[in-house]
Amino acid sequence: MRTDRKVMRRVVLVAAASAALFMGATPAQADNGPHVSTATNNTTFVDGQPTNGVKISDAGQGRCASCHRAHTAKAPYLLNATSEEALCFSCHGTGGTGATTDVQGGVGYDTASSTTYPDGTTVQTVVRGSTQVLPLRGGGFEKAMLGSSEATKDMGVLGAHGWTSVNQLIPPAPTQEATTSSHLGGVNVMWGNGALSATPNTGKVMSSPKLECTSCHDPHGNKQYRILRPVPSDSGFSATAFPDGILIPDTTNKVYTTDNYWSVGDTNVPAEELTTTILGATSIVDPTPKIKTSSVAVSPYMANVAAWCTTCHTRYLAPSQSYKTDSGDAVFTYRHTGDNVSGDRDARSRNCIQCHVAHGSNAVMPNSSVEWPDGTTPSSDSRLLRVDDRGICVMCHNV
Questions:
Q1: In b/e form, how buried is each residue of 249-260, taking b as 16+ CB within 10 angstroms?
Q2: Where does the UniProt annotation place the signal sequence (predicted)?
Q3: How confident is the model over 259-286, as pLDDT tens digits?
């Protein structure tokens, strides 16, 4: 994650934040265009011979040239840009026009227009509008809009474990702010990657200079949630029970924005797609994902996202009671629960995605310097957390 950014403290204007909450949600456009998967062919076979094929125009003959050049490419893999990052940002960046999602700036836009393939249903091109709608759920790589200093909660009833926290809110920030941590780049270490070991090992040095968009996403489409790769590049993940990696089925309706960064589940998962199976750690001393049964139905996204994150950060996947039980690892010895899933599609869970955003955070840590697993201590990195000064802890706990 990036460690060299400084963020100016802000004065949050209540009126501006309120306006952001009522601007609506971004239309579902991504995972379409050049990312539509055509891996499935509905061809009928008779005596082993196809009776019809996929019509090339329906399969997307115009998609290839959106990103590639056969003889005049500017980067490896025949990319029509000087780098992978530049290519992705040509649509999904601050100056991009071909997607409503600006992952560089962490904000969603409205749609000016769109066209479809000859099949009449698949989106071919999107023209971004000029109106910012709401910030992106995953934050942004260079700027983000988490209201990380304005997080609130209500104190609930007093129970056996103290006062419960309810009605948590992390509002959108009124303006975009520079990120203090980001998954695009960083220190080039997959913290916690590898098996539990009594020999100190903080993680794996990546083979590439930095993470790229396609480290996590498949640009050609794969019918996965957010076109996530079942196994991120260079993670080294392998599990006998999951030879195809961690699969998270896609949703029909896709909304990429949020008006509350504490609400991390996906309410757009249809009720008929909910599941009672979740992926959690096998045990405190074995973080390998294992299929478990939930007493209530949960969304496939929440049921699998922690296991997906820990294909890279292997030793972070921890079940309940890990906070007081020695894992046997010399570095990641006692760990916060990371595989809990609640029964709400808009789940608030003890889960990786509850505390961290995926792309980048603008939270600041002026009073909470915490060392990296290898003992070094940068003072400004927010570790992709959603609230200033490790306030994410107080969103659940009362101290």
A1: ebbeebbbbbbe
A2: 1-30
A3: 999 999 888 888 888 899 999 999 999 9
Q: Which two tokens stand for residue 252?
A: 């029909």
Residue 195 in this model has a pLDDT that exceeds 60: yes
In a domain, 227, yes or no: yes
DSSP 345: T
Task: Phi first, then psi: give them for residue 205, nearest 5 degrees.
Answer: -75, 125
> What tokens does 192 get?
């916690």
Yes or no: say if 170 and 148 are a contact pair by the CB < 8 Å rule. yes
Return the percent helix, strand and coil in the chain, to nearest 5.
Answer: 15, 25, 60
| Nearest-angstrom CA–CA distance, 312 and 229 | 12
Looking up tokens 């579902």 gives 28
Summarised one tens digit per residue, pLDDT across range 236-262 is 998 889 999 999 999 888 899 999 999
Cβ contacts of 320 within 8 Å, gap of 6 or more? 337, 340, 350
* In a domain? residue 3: no
Bridge partners, 126 (sequence order)? 114
In a domain, 24, yes or no: yes
Nearest to 314 by CA among 288, 340, 294, 338: 288
DSSP state of 271: G
Q: Which two tokens stand for residue 75?
A: 């980067």
The CA distance from 387 to 377, in Å, is 19
Counting the structural domains of the chain, the total is: 1
C-alpha–C-alpha distance, residues 127 and 108, integer Å: 13
Query: C-alpha 345: how far from its chain's center?
Result: 16
Domain extent for 293: 14-39+56-395
Which of 154, 157, 155, 138 is closest to 146 using CA atoms? 138
Cα separation, 226 vs 101, whole angstroms: 12
Give domain status of residue 107, yes or no. yes
Distance CA 108, CA 136 (A): 6
AA letter at 266: D
Which H, E and C letters describe 53-120, residue by residue?
Answer: CCCHHHHCCCCHHHHECCCCCCECCCECCCCHHHHHHHHHCCCCCCCCEECCCCEEEEEEEEEECCCC
For residue 285, what is the DSSP state? T
Distances (CA, A) of 4 to 196, 264, 380, 382: 31, 28, 8, 11
Residues, the chain: 399
**Whole-prediction pTM:** 0.87
